[in-house]
Amino acid sequence: MSAVNESVQDGGTTSARLDLFRYLTADLAADYRAIMTLFTSTLLADLSASEVSEALAERGTVLSVDDVTTRCEQLERWGNLVRGIRDARVATVQDYVRSRARYQASKLGVRVHREAEAIVAAGDGAREVARELLGATAETLDRIVARMTAASDGRPVSAEALSGDVTTVFNNQRLFSDSVRDFYAYVNTVLTRYDLAGEEYQQFKRLLLDYIDLLTADVARHAPVVARRFTALEPLLDDVLAAMATLPTLADANTERLPGRTREDWEHVRGWYTGADGRSGPETLRLAADQALGQLLANTKRMLASAGTGVSRRADLLKLASWFDDADADQAHALYAAAFGAYPARHLLGGPEEPDPRDGATTSWWAATPVEVPLSLRERGDRGARGRTSSVPDPGLDRVRLLAEAQSEADARAAAVGELVAAGRLDGAQVSPAALGLLLGQLTRLLALHPQLEATARATDTDLGLTLTAAPEPTASTTLRTTDGDLTVHGLVLEVTAAGGAADGGAASPEPAEVLA
Amino acid sequence: MSAHGTAEHDAAERREAARALLRHPVLTKARHGEEFALVRRHAPALRRMFPAVLGYPLVVESSFARLVKDAPSADAPPRPAQRRGGQPFAPRTYAYLALVCAALLQTAGREQVLLGTLVEQVRADAAVAGIAVDDSLTDRRHLVQAMALLLDRGVLSETDGSVTAWGDRQDEALLDVNRTLLTHVLARPLGDVATPEELLARGERAVAEQPRRALRRRLVENPLVRREDLTAEEQHVLSRERADLSRTLGEHFGLTLEVRQEGALAYDVDGELTDIAFPGQGTVAHVALLLVNALVDDLDGGPGVVAEVDGRTVPGLLAPWAAVSDAVDLLVEQYGTTFAEAFARDPEHLQAEAVSRLEDMSLARRTAEGLVLHPACARYQPEPQRAPRRASVPAARASEDAPAETQQGLFPLQEDR
Questions:
Q1: Which of A119-133, A162-176, B69-83, B170-184 comes out lowest in average pLDDT?
Q2: How far, in Å, CA of B211 to CA of B218, rounded?
C-alpha cells in the first residue's frame, strides 16, 4: 500500500510528488485549477491547448491559446499533466505541431485535483458520521463467511461476488473511519474557538451531547459484533485470499491493489475492532468523546469567565465609566447601587423581641411605646454590651414574689384544713367555701379509690395533714353549709380528723382501707 | 451536616446565612469563612428562597457567593460604595472602578495580571470612553481606592507587592484575578440600557409589577418605609397581609416588622443586620440620637404633625436649622467631653455629620427651612418623656393643617425663620 510504496521511494520522488500540489497555491492558481478541472471532468480527456482554450471560454474563463500552452507546460513540469501520446495523422504542419501539444491529466494529478476540489468545496459544518456502515459491515462479513462455508469441492466459491463483498467491507471501513476522523476534527476546531456564544453555542452543545452519545452507543453496540465476525472469518481467511487471487488482475508489482487483497489489510481492520494493535477504535472514540465533553465544560466555564459575557460586559463597564464620570455624587451613588447591586441591607436598631400589642398599624409613632436605648449609648455613645436592648428580668424579685404567693396559698389551705378538722363529724357543719372545695377534692379521691364503698373507708393526705373517713350508712346523710350554698352527701357519714397522732385510732386499727397520699 | 441538626437549628443557620448575604452581597470564602460555610451548606434552600421572597438571584460558587440585588427603591437612602476610611466614593472613583473591571476583562483568560499592565489598559480604555485622566496623585488615589474595593470584594488579591505601594511609589505589583467573581461584579448586563436615567428607572419598573415582592424588598433593604411612598397595591399588601409579611421577614431574615400609622420598618433585634448602626457607637451616632431626642423634646411633635418636603405635605416634624444648631451646641456643651476631639471643636462639622447620619437612616430629610424629622424618630424618645406625650394626642391632631403655628408658641427659636 501507499506506506510501503513511500518507503521505497527515494527523496527525489517524494519531492516530485509534492510538486503535484504546487499549482494550488502558485500565482495564477485560478487558471491552473480551471485547466485541471477541465482535464479531470471526463474520463480519458485528451485535449490540445486550443481545445482547452475553447472549452474554458465556454465556461466563462478566457485564456489565449498561448497562455493555455504555457500553463499546461508548467503543469506538465509539476507532473499534473502528461503529454498526450495519441498519434494523429494530420495534413498540415500547423496541425502536427498542435497535435504534439496534446495533454492528459496524470494519474496522481487527477487524484490531487479531486481531493483539492473536494476540500475547497467542503462545508465548514460537521460531517455526518456514516454510522449505518457498522451494521452493514457485520452483514457483509456474514455473507463472506456464508459463501466460504457453502463452497465445496463441487461448487467453488464465486470469486467475483466474494471480492465485491471484500471491497465493500474495506470501503465501508475507510468511509466510516474517515467520517469519524472528520467529525472529531470538526469538534476539535469548534472547541478551540473563543467566540462561540449564544445560539451557536447551544447548537454545538446539542450536537456534542446528542450526536456523540449516539455515535458512542452505536459503536459500542456494533463493534463487538463485527469483531466476532472477524474472529469467525479468521480460519477461512487464507481461502478467501486464495479465491480472490484467482481473479484476473494487473500484473505489475507497482500496481495499487484494492484493499482486502492481503493478510495485512485484514489484520489491520480487525485490529481496529479488537484492539489487537494497541488501542481499539471504539475505545479511541470513547476517549475522544470524553475529551470533547470535558473540553466543552472547560470552554463553558471560560466563556462565562471571559469571552462569552466578557465582550458585552466590558462594553457595559466602559459605558458605565463614562456615566459615572459625568454624574454628580448623588447620581453616581444611585448608579453604583443600581448597576452593581451589591449594597448592604440597612436597618434601624432597637425594639422589643415581641412587639408591644398595644401599638398597632394605626398607632402613630409619636404615640407608640419608644424602644429602649441602652443607657451607655444614650449617655456616652458607646455600647457596653452589644446586642439586644430588651430588659433583662431580675430573677431575685420574681423569686420573692413567687415565694410570697406560695406562702399565702399554703396559709389559706391550712386554714381550710383547720376548719374541717375542727368540725370533725361534718354533718351540719358551717364551713368556708375554701374548706368545702378542699373536702370535695378529698372526697373525690376517696371515692375514686373505693368505688364500691361497702365498708368504712379512709383517705389520708399527709401534705394537708388530714384524714377523711367515710362510713356508708343508707339512711344517713351529711350536709355542709357554706355561704356559697349547701352540700348534701346521701348515704355516707363523713368525718375529718387531723392526720398522724391526732387521728382517732387511725394508727391502731388498720382494718379500714387506708389511703396514703 | 444538616442531617444531624434539628429542623429548628437548620432554620436558624439558614437565617444566619441569609442575613450574612444581605449584609455582604458578595460573600467570599477568604473574608467571611464562617458565613460562607453556612451559605454553602444551605445553598439549595437559599437559592430557592431569595428569588421567591425578594426576586434576587443567588450565585454560589466554590470560593464565593453573590446575591444579585436589584436597584434600591427610589425612596431608599443613598448606598454609596465606601473607601477604606468609610467616606463615600467620588464619581471619579466609581469611574475608575468600572474602568478597572473593564480592563480586567480585556486581559481575558489570564489568572494573574501585572498592575502596570492593568493601569495602562485602564488609561487606554479611559481615552476611548472619553474620560480625561492624568497621572496626578489625586487620580492615582481614586484608582487605588477603586482597586481597594475590588481587593476587599475578593475580585483581586495581591500576590506580590501591593496596590498601595503602587499608588505611592509606582512599584509594580502582581495581582491574582478571580475571573468567575469578576463576571458577577455587575448585577446584570446593561446592553439594553442607553442612558443613566433608564438604568435608575429600571428598578422602579420591576417594583411596580410585583407589589408584594417590592414591599418585602423595601422592608428588608431600607431602614424605614414611609407610608406616603407606597403605591396603592403596596399599601393594600401592608394592611391585608401583615401577618404573612411579618412571618416571612422573621422566618427568613430574623427581622421584626413594625407597622405604624406613618409607615413601616423591620428592625433587627440582634442589632447586626445593618451597615450603619443607629443607635450606635461613636460620636456621630451618639449625637444623632441625642439630637433627635432633643428636637423631639423641644418641638412638640405628635400624631398628625406634618411638614413640607419637596412640595409634598408629609407626616413629619420640622426642626428649623437654628433649632438644630442650638441643640447641637447644647449637646457639645453637655456631652462634649465624651466626643471625639475633632467633633467637639467643630460643632458645624458635627452637625453636618449627624444630620447626614439621620438622612442615611431615612429618619430625617433636609429642606431649605430645616430638618424634617420623620415620626419614626419618636421610637427613640427618652423614656421619661413618654407619659406626657401620650396625653397630648388630641391637641396635636387638631393642628394638622397648620403645624408651624402650634410649634410657634412652644418654641421661641421659630422667630429666626
A1: A119-133
A2: 10
Cβ-contact B53, B47 below 8 angstroms = no
Domain residue ranges in chain A = 1-121, 131-248+258-303, 417-498
What is the C-alpha to C-alpha distance for residues B342 and B337, in angstroms, rounded to an integer? 11
Q: Which residue has the cell 413640607?
A: B308
Best CA proximity match to A293, nearest among A216, A220, A199: A216
d(CA B69, CA B217): 10
pTM for this one? 0.56
- Cα separation, A97 vs A88, in Å, equals 11
Strands A513-516 and A457-461: parallel
What's residue A384's pLDDT?
54
Contacts of B239 in chain A (CB under 8 A): 361
**Interface probe with B: pick from A348, A388, A392, most Cβ of B within 10 Å:** A348
**Closest Cα of chain B to A192: distance in Å?**
13
**Cis bond upstream, residue B279 (ω within 30):** yes
Alpha carbon B6 to chain centroid distance? 34
pLDDT band at A261 (very low <50, low <70, confident <90, very high): confident
Residue A399 forms contact with B (CB below 8 Å): no
The rounded distance, in Å, linking the Cα atoms of A375 and A352 is 16
Q: Cβ–Cβ of B23/A344 closer than 8 Å?
A: yes
- For residue B372 the three cell numbers come to 424634617
Task: Say how far apart CA B17 and CA B38 lie, in whole Å.
Answer: 6
Looking at the complex, does the CB of residue B361 fall below 8 Å from at least one CB of chain A?
A: yes
pLDDT digits (tens, 9 = 90+) for B74-133: 888 888 998 888 888 999 999 999 999 988 887 656 788 888 889 988 998 898 888 888
Average pLDDT for A360-386: 76
With 0-12 CB in 10 A as exposed, 13-18 as middle and 19+ as buried, what is A212?
A: buried
Reduced to 3 states (helix: H, G, I; strand: E, B; else coil), residue B136 is coil
Is residue A370 within 8 Å of B380, Cβ to Cβ? yes
B304 has a chain A CB within 8 A of its CB: yes
Q: Report pLDDT digits (tens) over A98-123.
A: 666 788 888 888 889 998 988 888 87
Asked if B79's CB is within 8 angstroms of A380's CB, the reply is no
Put simply, the answer to whether B273 touches A345 (Cβ < 8 Å) is yes
Q: What is the pLDDT of residues B369-382, one digit of tens each?
A: 899 999 999 888 77
ipTM > 0.95 for the complex? no
The whole-number average pLDDT for the span A404-433 is 86
CB contact (8 A) between residue A309 and residue B101: no
In terms of CA atoms, which chain A residue is nearest residue B218?
Answer: A345
Q: Which residues of B touch A387 (CB under 8 A)?
A: 270-271
Q: Which residues 273-312 of A have a C-beta within 8 angstroms of B?
A: 301-302, 304-307, 309-310, 312
Residues A371, B258: Cα–Cα separation, whole Å = 11
In order, the DSSP letters of B274-313 are -SS-SS-SSHHHHHHHHHHHHHHHHTT--TT-EEEETTEE
Q: For residue B305, list chain A residues with Cβ-Cβ distance below 8 A.
A: 366
CATH number of A1-121: 1.10.10.10
What pLDDT shows up at residue A377? 76
Closest CA to B156 of B113, B121, B119: B113
Chain B CB contacts of A337 below 8 Å: 71-72, 78-80
- The DSSP line for A228-263 is HHHHHHGGGHHHHHHHHHTS-----TT--PPTTSSH
Whether residue A368 and residue B379 make contact (CB cut-off 8 A), yes or no, is yes
pLDDT tens sequence across A483-510: 878 888 888 888 888 876 444 444 444 4
C-alpha grid cell for residue A52? 482547452
Beta strand segments in A92-177, E: 102-105
